[in-house]
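Protein entry
_____________
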Amino acid sequence: MIKETHHLEDLTEKERLIDLLIHDLTGPLSIVATSTSNLLQKERYGVLSDRQRHAIERIGRNTHKAQTLLKEMVEIFKSGEGLFQKDLFLIEEALKESFIGALEATSPQVAENLCQAEGAKEFNRILKRHGIFFEIAGKYCQSPFCHDQKKIEQIFRNLISNGLKYRKNRVSVSISGNKDLIGIVENDGMGIPLEEQNEIFNRFVRLERHAHIPGLGLGLPGVKALVEAMGGEITLKSKPGTGVSFMIRIPPLR
């Protein structure tokens, strides 16, 4: 009983610390984002050289990335409390946002091209040129899905981002399902041995063979927490040298 009480007290302190962290970082990041945007758009301090513009654009991209991480932390905690926004939305539109969000950090020009794409065909052509493929079959090809759209986008954004980091040449996303939403995100990377597959869902875990790839070890644990809070499940299939396939199943929100 003493151990259990101590654990709950520790958990409360961690939650307070995270609440404080989110609160104290939100304001400064917002100021940085606004300031960089003003510098780029208004040039109130004079005309920027190409090197200055590229440096400020880099600051802006990384500020946006930090803001996204904070938002994702908030969504994970909200899901832990059972707080979901009930949305009716097309999975294709949510996936487009996920692709753009995943590419903004590593390939901002590709993300910008996707934002400016005129229609689904051009959007798909841009993705294919960069080794990214997706298809939607089943009910949710045309019918809307009912759940929290932001959290669905966050789940796929993280899985796609993970695939882009570890692929050799390609990443593919496929959607199916006639009741529960079924999503599969695959890459053709080096793969994960069976004995290490459960570890990647633990926070801050970085596999030794992937140590050279940037990351904090929080993306997949966050995805797992969200999917399970939504009443679903996530599984993976992989062998060394054969890439990785993540499958998620999420029931619609009632």
The chain has seven helices and seven strands.
